[in-house]
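Hey team,

Filing this mostly as a record. A colleague (T.K.) asked me to run one chain through the structure pipeline before their review meeting, and I want the input and output archived in the tracker in case anyone asks later how it was produced. No errors, nothing strange. Just documentation.

Input sequence:
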Amino acid sequence: MAKKKRSRFYLLKDLWAFMKENKKWWLLPLIIMLILTALLIILGQSTPVSPFIYPLI
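Output structure:
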C-alpha cells in the first residue's frame, strides 16, 4: 500500500481552505501574529540579526 506524499505546507493549505469555506476570516490576524512571533523567536536566538531584534522586544 503506497502512502500519499504530503506537501510541505499541507497544514497551511488545509487551514486556508477551512477559513475560505467557513468564512472564518477573523483567524487570519491571529495566524499572522503567531507566525511573526515564531520568526522573532527563531531569529532572536543566535543569529547576527539578534542585536537588532532585542530593542524591538
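Quick notes for T.K.: Residues 10-56 form one domain. The mean pLDDT is 78.
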